[in-house]
Amino acid sequence: MSCSAVVHGSNVAEPIKKPSCGRAATRDLARSARAHGALMLAGFDTPHEEWMSLVWGSLFDRDHALRLLARRPASAAVALPEVMAAADRFDALAVEAKRRVRRLILRHEQRTWIQAV
Q1: Nearest to residue 52, comparing CAs of 109, 1, 93, 11?
Q2: CA distances from 99 to 40, 75, 102, 104 (A)
Q3: Cβ–Cβ < 8 Å for 116, 47
């Protein structure tokens, strides 16, 4: 599947914002996850499941992210802009890139589980 998109008007095809499909976009999301994940997911026995719930749909679950941040109001003000920016970056990803993000979360969970055993 291509990462380009075109909207067809009357007689002219107009380019629209292309979904991002590069590895750089997923690296940016991973960087945000490392920076704020511990804050958002502190106290959860299954943090990877929480991450998957945030990115399971076609759009980042901002409501769930806000509920997670609300558990730590003192730190939430610092993390909120970056988490919402990460949500925007996730939403802009192509379908394949979103699947890659989910696979990376699952792979990280497997590695974490193996290291714990």
Answers
A1: 109
A2: 22, 30, 5, 9
A3: no
C-alpha angle 19/57/35, rounded to 5°? 75
Q: What is the pTM of this model?
A: 0.71
Structural tokens at position 94: 């192509």
- Tokens read off for 52: 């998957």
Residue 80, burial from CB neighbour count under 10 angstroms (0-12, 13-18, 19+): middle
pLDDT tens per residue, the chain (117 residues)?
Answer: 444 443 344 444 444 455 556 677 767 777 777 777 777 777 888 888 998 999 999 999 999 999 998 988 888 888 899 899 999 999 999 999 999 999 988 988 777 766 555
Judge residue 33's burial from the number of C-beta atoms within 10 Å of its C-beta, 0-12 exposed, 13-18 middle, 19 or more buried.
buried
